[in-house]
Amino acid sequence: MDISQYKNVTLLDHPLLKHKISILRDKNTPTSQFRQIVKEVAVMEGYEALKDVKTHLVEIETPIEKTKQPMVEGSHLCFVPILRAGMGMVDGMTELVPTAKVGHIGLYRDEVTHEPHEYYCKLPDHLDQKEVYVLDPMLATGGSSIDAIKLLKQHGAKHLHFICIIAAPEGVKAFCEANPDIPLYIGALDRQLNENAYICPGLGDAGDRIFGTVKE
Ligand code: PRP
Ligand code: URA
């Protein structure tokens, strides 16, 4: 896939990020380490995705003198994980901006149709005035991300961003066709989906690996 055709997409390119994503891909990585690395990847991706966030000048006093210096107003930011797997990215993002608001959207993919179903939605007030960062490690068919964005728009969100760890070309295409103006940050772009709509090579079921619910 020629990713450069999508002007809203940033495919991150850093050796440490690639290294950490390779650990996530390894089926022998235990749950505790998987969870920790998802958090670290969220910090790295969040750092990049937040690079255009607005600052305002605040008066502070150094040991030398009074001065006005740039600060981020965290309460103008809202992080929205798509449950369950997106929860794994919240700690990394709030480590970057501890005062950000956090909303939650619950979606699960039907195992047969692969269509997303909504089961939970709790969002902060005044969403229209916030920069909203949707978090989900996996962008597979794109169905869940597209539905989450639709829901957030219905709740008034106007300034949206999407951060995922691994994306399939099929999901990127669907997301960008539905949302050509929403910045999409991707940690790794994989080859394709398989017949069960899992990403190849991918990392398996992100929710199961974060929460240790892998079927034995
Ligand atoms: C996974 C993942 C995304 C979705 C991606 O969640 O976390 O939300 O699938 O697939 P899509 O792009 O084809 O919609 P899942 O539905 O498995 O729920 P879970 O996080 O609760 O395991
Ligand atoms: N959801 C996952 O957790 N993994 C995939 O590969 C696709 C959807």
Describe the protein.
Helix content is 30%, strand content 29%. It is an alpha/beta fold. The model has no long low-confidence stretch (mean pLDDT 96). The structure holds 1-O-pyrophosphono-5-O-phosphono-alpha-D-ribofuranose and uracil.
Structure annotation, total helices = 6
Give me the strand/helix succession. EHHEEEHEEEEEHEHEEEH
The average pLDDT score comes to: 96
What proportion strand? Answer: 25-35%
Topology at a glance:
Elements lengths: L8 E3 L3 H11 L5 H19 L6 E6 L4 E6 L5 E7 L6 H7 L4 E2 L1 E6 L6 E7 L8 E5 L2 E2 L3 H12 L4 E9 L1 H10 L5 E6 L2 E2 L5 E2 L5 H6 L5
Parallel strand pairs: 1-11, 4-5, 4-6, 4-8, 8-10, 9-10, 10-11
Antiparallel strand pairs: 2-3, 6-7, 12-13
Summarize the structure.
The chain is of the alpha/beta class and 216 residues long.
List keywords for this structure.
216 residues, alpha/beta, two-stranded antiparallel sheet, 6 helices, binds 1-O-pyrophosphono-5-O-phosphono-alpha-D-ribofuranose, binds uracil
